[in-house]
Known about the structure:
The chain is of the alpha+beta class. It is built from two helices and four strands. A hairpin with a 5-residue loop joins β2 (56-64) and β3 (70-76).
Amino acid sequence: MKLLLKSLILIALTSVCHARDDFAIARVSLDQATQQIIRDGNKRVLGATTEIIDGRAVHIIKVLTPDGRIQHYKIDAETGALIS
């Protein structure tokens, strides 16, 4: 009985660890990335979304600049770094 219980616990732990490999966990939320862009200047956010690009999560933020131009910013969801 103890062997069966230990085996079930081991299987459950292995499944949990394996499941974490399948999903990218964003360290920087879409809201945090958007706030980061807003703080950098007088910009109006038109839209924001998260997409998977080359296997990694990227926040894409569309803004209207004070001079009327539309810009798209890409933020790495893992690190919070601006992607050029």
